[in-house]
Write a structure and sequence with these properties.
about 450 residues; alpha+beta; Four Helix Bundle (Hemerythrin (Met), subunit A); paralog of FGE (formylglycine-generating enzyme); 2 domains; 4-stranded mixed beta sheet; 3-stranded antiparallel beta sheet; 14 strands; about 15% strand; globular; binds fe (ii) ion
Length: about 450
């Protein structure tokens, strides 16, 4: 067997290797931000492509502003670069729909600004002791800023998907499915305790902490995410017109928003087409469905005689290794996800067919838990027992509560730096422009258990 590259864990690196790792991650991330913002002309960069999203030029300067505030000023204690623009790029001050009207930095100014900030940060990285203060231990603040920029790269990718016009982004086809016909529809995860969350992953965010034991009863979970072909059967059976499959809130939203199919689908005289980053093409039946909201996922699950997994079930399926009794970093262990184990990082601008990435399977046999599509869970976004906000309340704490549902696993638009078995995403149950799909779960009947 070929040797495996383990994704570097900042906890295992000496100071110099840690500095190199941080600098590499920052550069890789910036390359993606540049690719996403140089794929369109300046006019498109400052335009709002959807009221759901910021202009791309806002995301770019916002990334620089957060990097300045956290690294240049807080970690470095250095003089501010542009304190006058803090408010413009504070996501809590201005709703996305209002951002185009702000006196934003223009494309050239924004590019110069992020470059100036980055130069200061690289200088700081060379000199920072990376210890002695929680914010810099194991380069946490640098890792947080890398993840923040990667999250905006995924947001910018969603803006590209909402943009009308010819394709401008390059990608390559994802790998094919392997043994898809012989895969079981679902796998059993036996009941019992497992360790959820983490206290040791150095760049894990506050909401992933601390590690804690959770007892989960027996459940079955789909081997792969629900495909377009499966979802089409729900649609063709009149699923969008039958309130019995929908929750009360879901049905209200279904009517109010006139939902009839996943976002970006179009009925072309009996054939379903989808628009994907400027390409109009037949819906690929074997790919996981994407661009459905929580309510659509929930209605499908009810129609299928199943339910959405809880967040606890999802994480147990993804991380619990019954041989060791431990929870894994990724479903397959420690190896780097980029070595053909998961569809992450915007290399393929679509999910891979259900059944791809057999070497990325979890111990329970489920595939594609990491990458391809974010997966809606049944759970509200809530703190783990022992949660403490770090480094600030606005990172997670202000979002806890019943208005946000948890999504897990990352999508083809998520970077490896911002995705791991413990990573939690959250959003409103009506969101459809994100790269979200789902898989179903169910509680086994008593006669199914030996
Ligand atoms: Fe942000």
């Amino acid at each position: 067997m070929a040797s495996e590259t383990v994704r570097p864990n900042p906890a295992d690196l000496g100071i110099e290797d840690l500095r190199t790792h941080v600098a590499d991650e920052m550069q890789r991330t910036r390359d993606r931000s540049i690719a996403l913002t140089s794929a369109v002309d300046d006019d498109e960069l400052v335009r709002q492509h959807s009221p759901l999203m910021s202009p791309l030029v806002w995301d770019l300067a916002h990334v620089g502003s957060q990097e300045e505030i956290w690294l240049v000023r807080d970690v470095g204690g250095r003089q501010a670069v542009r304190p006058d623009i803090d408010d413009l790029y504070d996501a809590f001050q201005h709703a996305r729909a209002d951002r185009p009207a702000l006196p934003l930095l223009g494309p050239t100014e924004a590019r110069n600004y992020v470059t100036t900030v980055r130069d200061k940060v690289l200088d700081l990285l060379d000199r920072s002791p990376l210890e002695g203060r929680r914010l810099v231990e194991q380069a946490f603040a640098f890792g947080m800023i890398v993840q923040h920029e990667q999250q905006h790269d995924e947001t910018m990718l969603a803006t590209h998907q909402l943009r009308n016009g010819d394709p401008v982004l390059d990608d390559e086809p994802p790998p094919a499915a392997v043994d898809a016909d012989s895969l079981p529809d679902e796998v059993l995860v036996p009941g019992g305790p497992f360790v959820m969350g983490t206290s040791t992953e150095p760049w894990a965010l506050d909401n992933e902490r601390p590690a804690h034991e959770v007892h989960v009863a027996d459940f079955r979970i789909d081997t792969t995410p629900v495909t377009n072909g499966q979802f089409l059967r729900f649609l063709d059976s009149g699923g969008y017109d039958q309130p019995r499959w929908w929750s009360e809130q879901g049905w209200q939203y279904r009517q109010r928003a006139d939902l009839r199919a996943p976002l970006f689908w179009k009925d072309d005289g009996g054939t379903w087409l989808r628009r994907r980053f400027g390409h109009v093409e037949p819906v690929a039946l074997d790919e996981p469905v994407v661009h459905v909201c929580f309510y659509e996922a929930q209605a499908y699950a009810n129609w299928a005689g199943k339910r959405l997994p809880t967040e606890q079930e999802w994480e147990k399926a993804a991380r619990f290794d019954p041989r060791s009794g431990r929870s894994l970093r990724y479903p397959w262990g420690q190896a780097d996800p980029q070595q053909g184990r998961a569809n992450l990082g915007q290399r393929h601008l679509r999910p891979a067919p259900a059944g791809a990435y057999p070497t990325g399977a979890a111990p329970c046999g489920a595939r594609q838990l990491i990458g391809d599509v974010w997966e809606w869970t049944a759970s509200d976004f809530a703190p783990y027992p022992g949660f403490t906000a770090f480094p600030y309340r606005e990172y997670s704490e202000v979002f806890f509560g019943a208005s946000h549902k948890v999504l897990r696993g990352g999508s083809f638009g998520t970077d490896v730096a911002a995705c791991r078995g413990t990573f939690r995403n959250w959003d409103y149950p009506i969101r459809r422009q994100i790269f979200a799909g789902f898989r179903c779960a169910r509680t086994p009947d008593s006669d199914e258990l030996g």
